[in-house]
Amino acid sequence: MPRFCVKVYGCQMNVYDADRVRTVLCSRGWDEVSDDDSPDLIMITGCSVRAKAEQKVWSELGLYEPSWLKNHRPLIALTGCIAQNLGERALNRFPYVRLVAGPRHIGLLPDAVEQVVKHPKSRINLLDTDPREFHGLNFDSDNITIKRENKYKAYVTIAHGCDNFCTYCIVPYVRGRFISRSPDEIFDEINMLINDGVKEVTLLGQNVNSYGKDINLSFAWLLKRVSEFRDLKRIRFVTSLPQDFTEDIINVMAGEENICPSLNLPVQSGSTRILRLMNRKYTREEYLDKVKLIREKVPGLGLTTDLIVGFPGETEQDFNDSMSLLETVRFDLVHSAAYSEREGTPAAVMEGALPVELRLERLNKLNELQDRITLDINKALTGEIFEVLVDDPAPKGEGLLQGRTPSDKVVIFPGSKRLLGEFVNVRITQAEAWCLHGELIS
Ligand code: SF4
Questions:
Q1: The pTM is what?
Q2: Please, is 357 exposed, middle or buried when counting C-beta atoms within 10 Å of its C-beta (0-12, 13-18, 19+)?
Q3: How many angstroms is it from 282 CA to the middle of ligand 1?
Q4: Ligand 1 center to residue 11 CA distance, Å?
Q5: Could you tell me which of 249, 325, 252 has the C-alpha nearest to residue 288?
Q6: How distant is the alpha carbon of residue 420 from its chain centre?
Q7: Residue 399 maps to a domain
Q8: Which of 16, 29, 80, 322 could disulfide-pair with 45, CB 3.0 to 4.6 Å?
Q9: What is the DSSP string of 388-433?
């Protein structure tokens, strides 16, 4: 039987897509092995949103050259939005890249991968000429139970693509127009996951708040329906767009016990001027008002954000506006990035590009500030008791387990592996910026 290996360099969307493909291949008798076990085929799937991730994948592709020259193995399939962006170049540059497939063709991948292994000289190109014009979706919606890395937690995609065209972002160009998944498909998948022992589900989309706009439904409606699956103990969702995060959604979050008080609400900049240049359709003040409202209605909220520094034309004042926003909001965590040009986006040709050194200098300053804030917030939790879903042994330390609080903070504590998949109460004894330490209480 052919042997394959999957390598994921990307966001949760890529993890989910890769899980679907590996499930179908395994169900057809393929063996999943590690990279070191000479697979016949390596599927590399990745995200194109940041230049760094792309560079990583490009270097990885180059690493297979010596092995290919020696024994013509392994064959490579490049998938995900990175394939839509770099696929043509990869086919031309590396003879062992035999299949490139954009994210809209995930459903065709298992057959395409089998073709490549059966006919090793074939080269398959499943890229869209222009995904912005591609409204369909080759998505395999068979009722399959997806093979997952974690037994107790799962992602469920509720929508694909994005219509927002933020000026720095490549997603609408590589993942295409926004399409909601049908509610029946989503509910069937959730039912299967529950039967498979899953206790926590994260609803996934580039902008989940847009759910339903193309099928006359709404995200608030979907969230409420999903919360009615009472065997689902925890529900999260990612990612939200501030302008579409309506009071209806907040009310459902506040009213349903199994919807976790955790939210990623990407602000991207604390300066209204830069937000306009980014084509984000809210001001600094509107963002702050929304945060205030959510915190009033959802007590104990864990709030994270995404923020870019060094956007073209960002002045010292604009940057200070981002710094002061962090001080005002006091996020639990910030996913920060120095702006990097993505070819084909409007921002890549804007005037006022900042030197890379200045972007990195600002990123360091911002991270130093946020690390202090995160540590302060975490320290204030010492002595508190949280219900934690034990999802894994801790990566370091014999006899340690790892889990998350409802507000999505990682907690590490001593305990038996028999507790995996259980909800336990943990008292916080010590705090770091990246995790909390605790002890089990009866
Ligand atoms: S909302 Fe903006 S940043 Fe998010 S995926 Fe869409 S275009 Fe990109």
A1: 0.84
A2: exposed
A3: 14
A4: 13
A5: 325
A6: 24
A7: yes
A8: 80
A9: EEEEEE-SSSTTEEEEE-TT--EEEEE--GGGTT-EEEEEEEEE-S
The Cα 388–Cα 435 span in angstroms is: 13
**Does the residue 52 lie in any domain?**
yes
Give the chain's domain count.
Answer: 2
The answer to whether residue 91 is domain-embedded is yes
Q: Could you give the CA distance from residue 113 to residue 99 in angstroms, rounded to a whole number?
A: 7
CATH of the domain at 26: 3.40.50.12160
Query: Which ligand 1 atom sits closest to the C-alpha of 268?
Result: 3
| Ligand 1 binding site (Cβ under 6 Å of any ligand atom) | 162, 164-166, 169, 171-172, 206-207, 241
Residue after which a domain boundary falls, among 106, 129, 152: 129
Ligand 1 test: best mutation among 47, 169, 342, most atoms within 8 Å of CB?
Answer: 169
For residue 180, the surrounding DSSP H or E stretch is strand 179-180
Residue 421: CATH number of its domain: 2.40.50.140
Print pLDDT tens along the chain (442 aa): 788 898 988 777 788 778 877 887 888 888 889 888 888 889 898 887 777 778 888 888 998 888 888 888 888 999 888 888 888 889 889 989 998 888 777 777 778 888 888 887 788 888 776 554 444 444 444 445 566 667 899 989 899 889 999 999 988 888 888 889 999 999 999 999 999 999 999 999 989 999 999 999 999 999 999 999 999 999 999 999 999 999 999 999 999 999 999 999 999 999 999 999 999 999 999 999 999 999 999 999 999 999 999 999 999 999 999 999 999 999 999 999 999 998 889 999 999 999 999 999 999 999 999 999 999 999 999 999 999 999 989 988 789 999 999 999 999 999 999 999 999 999 999 999 889 999 999 7
Cα gap 170→85, rounded to integer Å: 9
105 in a structural domain = yes
Tell me which of 129, 150, 181 is where a domain ends.
129
Q: Which domain holds residue 401?
A: 385-441
Given the CA of residue 280, which atom of ligand 1 is nearest to it? 2
